[in-house]
């Protein structure tokens, strides 16, 4: 008995869309055997009609307006690879209103409008699948949502932006300044012409927001995330951290907190002995701590045509398998049943505890370190380690680098404010957070 194919409308046949077309056709038989039915892209919408026709060889219907896919009764599921917040949101909501299942790689859309999208999807009884939205080909959404479902997740920490990880790896390996490495990353295609979303941590924050929602069963709260990028990071701090046994990575971190959930993205010192500290180049890695399973790590390519297509097609297979299941028996969008979501808020960064790296430019004279340590002691902040560079003989200045024990961020910032007022301290302190993941 022949089984009716799953009919797919593809909106956007750029890098990931092209990869999806290629892999879906190349592995059609394997995918059919897994899904229980053929999966066929039957219509494509893209602004570049010539490119779309060339890539598909004219084998499918071309639709100039993506909205036509959302309303087409001959399509069962749409893949949204348009990107952005505007038209993509309208397209996805229109598809859901028309009873279509949705597969998307759009982390920005979900992090900012996911609550609205999932509410409408639940009302209409359709699936919204988004494995490709976080960490490319790494199946971290499925791991958090299904594989670790027995666990109380304690924290998730991820290198979830390949552009910034490539830049940090190059800065560390070659001792180059950020601006120099960024230009090289753009030349090699690792960074966009406008790299702001990547280098300022916004892309990572979109992904961390999604992981936090799934890990803790909370609504999307992107607006509450604390976001710092790497554009102000200096090569000397990467070198100093290395001397102390640490590497600096841009991490997306979400943790259970006594008063809610932590959700933050920032450059972070991690012991060079930790596995995640040794993830180099444009690779991604996500580290999850569950109460039952302990530590688990997920590593792989976080971007690219075929790695991301791998995740898109895995979602299509899930849709094909669950098509006839009662909506109440499908895997919930955010792991927890919709009526069981927790009303936990994101904890302000001032209330977060970390260890800290401090670099201070000081006058080379007696008593400087005593003055600094006195201020820290007054703030109940203890020092774990420190070192002082050889002084600049011409300027009679030097760098002092400190690592503190755990303390509240608001206490650390108050202490820094007082330290910067000391007559022996020159200019502003550099502060970076450190995570032990103990």
Q: Briefly, what is this?
A:
By secondary structure, the chain is of the alpha/beta class.
Report on the structure:
The chain is an alpha/beta fold. The chain folds into 3 domains: 6-137 and 305-340, Rossmann fold; 140-300, Dihydrodipicolinate Reductase, domain 2, CATH 3.30.360; 350-434, Alpha-Beta Plaits, CATH 3.30.70. The chain is 37% helix and 26% strand. It has 15 helices and 17 strands. It has helices at 15-26, 28-35, 49-56, 66-71, 86-97, 107-124, 140-147, 162-174, 178-188, 196-199, 202-216, 235-243, 305-322, 368-378, 409-419, and strands at 6-11, 39-45, 61-63, 77-80, 101-104, 128-129, 153-159, 226-227, 246-257, 260-271, 283-290, 294-301, 353-363, 383-388, 397-404, 407-408, 425-434. The strands form 2 sheets. Strands 7, 8, 9, 10, 11, 12, 13, 14, 15, 16 and 17 form an 11-stranded mixed β-sheet that branches. A hairpin with an 8-residue loop joins strand 14 and strand 15 (397-404). Helix 5 runs parallel beside helix 6 and helix 14 (368-378) runs antiparallel to helix 15. It is elongated, with a radius of gyration of 24 Å. The mean pLDDT is 95.
């Amino acid at each position: 008995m022949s089984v009716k194919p799953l009919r797919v409308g593809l909106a956007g046949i750029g890098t990931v869309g092209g990869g999806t077309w290629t892999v879906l056709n190349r592995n059609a038989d394997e995918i059919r055997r897994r899904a229980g039915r053929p999966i066929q892209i039957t219509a494509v919408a893209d602004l570049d009609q010539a490119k779309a026709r060339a890539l598909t060889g004219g084998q499918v219907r071309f639709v100039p307006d993506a909205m036509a896919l959302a309303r087409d009764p001959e399509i069962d599921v749409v893949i949204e690879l348009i990107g952005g917040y505007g038209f993509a949101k309208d397209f996805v909501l229109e598809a859901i209103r028309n009873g279509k299942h949705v597969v998307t790689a759009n982390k920005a859309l979900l992090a900012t409008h996911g609550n609205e999208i999932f509410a409408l999807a639940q009302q209409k009884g359709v699936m919204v699948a988004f494995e490709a939205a976080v960490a490319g080909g790494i199946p971290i959404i499925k791991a958090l949502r299904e594989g670790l479902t027995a666990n109380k997740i304690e924290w998730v920490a991820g290198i979830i932006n390949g552009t910034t990880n490539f830049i940090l790896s190059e800065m560390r390996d070659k001792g180059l300044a950020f601006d120099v490495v960024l230009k090289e990353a753009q030349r090699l295609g690792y960074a966009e012409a406008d790299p702001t979303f990547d280098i300022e941590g916004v892309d990572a924050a979109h992904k961390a927001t999604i992981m936090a929602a799934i890990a803790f069963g909370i609504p999307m709260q992107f607006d509450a995330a604390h976001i710092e990028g790497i554009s102000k990071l200096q090569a000397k701090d990467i070198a100093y951290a290395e001397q102390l046994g640490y590497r600096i990575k841009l991490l997306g971190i979400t943790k259970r907190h006594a008063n809610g959930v932590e959700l933050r993205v920032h450059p972070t010192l991690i012991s060079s002995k930790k596995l995640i500290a040794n993830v180099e180049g444009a690779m991604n890695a996500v580290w999850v701590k569950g109460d039952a399973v302990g530590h688990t790590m997920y590593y792989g390519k976080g971007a690219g045509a075929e790695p991301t297509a791998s995740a898109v097609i895995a979602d299509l297979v899930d849709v094909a398998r669950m098509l006839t299941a009662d909506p109440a028996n499908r895997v919930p969008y955010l792991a927890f049943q919709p009526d069981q979501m927790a009303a936990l808020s994101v904890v302000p960064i001032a209330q977060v505890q970390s260890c800290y790296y401090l670099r201070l430019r000081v006058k080379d004279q007696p008593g400087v370190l005593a003055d600094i340590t006195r201020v820290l002691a007054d703030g109940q902040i203890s020092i774990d380690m420190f070192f002082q560079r050889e002084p600049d003989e011409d300027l009679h200045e030097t760098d002092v680098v400190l690592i503190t024990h755990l303390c509240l961020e608001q206490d650390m910032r108050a202490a820094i404010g007082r330290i910067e007022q000391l007559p022996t301290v020159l200019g502003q302190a550099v502060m970076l957070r450190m995570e032990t993941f103990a």
